[in-house]
Design a protein that fits this description.
heterodimer; A: OB fold (Dihydrolipoamide Acetyltransferase, E2P); 2 domains; six-stranded mixed beta sheet; B: MetI-like fold; 13 helices; disordered C terminus
Amino acid sequence: MTAVDRSPPVTIRGIAKRYGNTTVLHGIDLDVKPGEFVTLLGPSGSGKTTILMILAGFVRPNAGSIKVGEEEIVAMPPHKRNVGMVFQNYALFPHMDVFQNVAFPLRQRGLGTAEIASRVREALDLVQLGEYAERRVDQLSGGQRQRVALARAIVFEPRILLMDEPLSALDKKLRERMQIEIRHLHERLGMTTIYVTHDQREAITMSDRVAVMNEGRIAQLDTPKGLYGRPKSRFVAEFIGESSFLPVERDGTAVKFGGRPLHMAGGVVPGAGKQWLVLRPEKLSILNSQTDAALNQFQGQVKEVVYQGESFVCYVTLLDGNEISVRNYSRGDALARLPEPGQPIRLGLSPEDVVLVPEEEAA
Amino acid sequence: MTAVPLQSSAAPAGLNVEALETARRVERNWMIAICSPSLILVGIIIFVPVGWLFWLSLFDAEGALTTANYMRLLQQPSYLKTLIMTFKVSFIVTIVCLLLGYPLAYLLSQLPRRAAGILMISVILPFWTSVLVRTYAWLVILQRRGLVNDWFMSLGIIDEPLQLAHNFTGVIVGMSHVMLPFLVLPLYASMKAIDRDYLRASLNLGANPVRTFWQVFFPLSLPGLSAGLVLTFVLCLGFFVTPALMGGGNVFMWSMRIEQTSRLYSNWGAASAMGVVLLALTLGILWAFYKLLGARNPLAKGLR
């Protein structure tokens, strides 16, 4: 299978969906560039799957526009959209074998037997299942079904590819391998891909950009690095990675925590309203006797230490009662040097790692 | 270097073997104890009478051992005619139930839960009414001076009343009504179990709704359909009340022949032989059907 010359961009404007009195999507705008891998990430009920269903044509929105390239598809029936989709439970037809499943979209398009055979073979080879054409679906493992579903979704060279939590049924090791594989496949085919997941790590690993969704709105659309490093709201910071939040006060242009001004790198401008300092466990360092005046310092007591193999997490109660955590690799004597629970500890945060978020994203 | 004697530090291989075996046996005995009342009951009310029926069929009216009861079925052409009529009626009723029941079950399976529930009651409610009541209701509707004829004549569609009851048509109408739930219920259950994602996947892959129905939905509904068809057909073969009343003596089915032989002529041996033949045919049909479906569903395969 050759790379799609130029998979079209997808332009979503003002997609709104209501069920009775419940609004599940409040006018979604999203631009996906040609060949881009964009993930819709959010908790259940955030509307991410609904967007995918609308893109595939299974759910009709109340308003909005979806353009694939220049073509408006919002009112088009699903079988005319030429959009590939991988379903959460794969939806492989149980009354057909692997070959027939992958050949299904080609048969609908009236291709000749010889061409169908060669294209199915090619697609199955691409997902490393060339030997499995004659197998029944119920003879395949979860990972193999996943690959067949992928082969079936790309064999007819759809304009865009949609994936609805395709890896959620796989165990952790296999899931991580498939993430990389799908990513490679995407790089090879260059197909514009919209992927839905509730797993933030998966989203960050695989995507060019991630749209974090919350209650039917896109809370933030950014690259994985941008999302993790510069979350725009408390919701996004909470959803992506681990974090603790400390309340900060504003004093003119300065920002204070516990009465002391924070050292901040240039460019961090606190917005209006209540602000929170985002503390990622791995950004904090455990300070010994030496003090670095440039670091922001937090004093507290060790509450608990949780050993997790490659790293450990130390939960610290600050003097003002807030609880934060620090993560460190179990390297050298890092764990041994850690104060006992109940002992005082000092933590440092470098000015570049100071991230402030508002309580709610300014609408 | 001194030889170190082998230490059997590992636990002996057969730790607790006896206790585990006892536990297994106790569990099995419990299962048997729980099942035995129903097994005994089934044994008494099915196997004993069938065995007795078979036994009776081997004797003539004087109590002498004979094969005459079976020979008569082969020799008298009227029996074959009745048998053909029985299969013909059963076949047509099954087809009518299929044509009415498949769309109905499809509708039920696609409706939202609440609407499907209400419609389902209208299918099941007649099921709870006595067959006799339903059959007389059909007689009221279809007879010479019945509702249908009255309406059609008052509308001027017909001049003479149509012969709708007491004939073949009446039997088909009455039996189809009684049999419909037996087809719809298993079919509905199997349609309901078809994941909507299969249909979505089919549409997504470019199959239009009609092709999606024939290539995905229909093959996946076949297990329920075949169960419903077999159930309907087999029940039709032995049906008595409705064909007897609706046929009005003009349609003769196997079950009526049995009734006539045993009640009118008190020939228990002959009636038993007819019962054995019907039972054998029914079992044969069931066996053939499951043989057909057993080999990885060739019905479904043929439709691809």
